[in-house]
Design a protein that fits this description.
The protein is of the alpha/beta class. The chain contains 3 helices and 8 strands.
Length: 129
Amino acid sequence: MKTKKIWANLGVEDLARTTKFYSELGFKPNGTNTELTSFTFGEDDFTIHFFIKERFKWAISSEAADLKLGNEIIFSLSAESVDEVHQWLLNVKNAGGKIFAEPQTVEKGYFFGFSDPDGHKFNILYWPK
């Protein structure tokens, strides 16, 4: 079998808040209804569906992870320069994201980490070629 596409499904408390947050960061909307809001990320249009938690609970047949106690996953988004990492930092702060790792150098790269209003974690990473 061949997999044609992969996407992520995450649970959220408030669809309007999630839609506003990712819209303010400039991600491409991929549809919204009463149960989910969806966005695409990157050149390959990686899709993340954000379901209201009750719907998400049904879909996974259990409770969603408590993100105050740990991580489910950290998505990495690439930047093209150190300056772009800093621009992302400002945009995330202005949109209401929480910074969990301040900008820093790691090996030859540069990054910072943030979480969205529900605690889903991302990092913005510049890694020179």
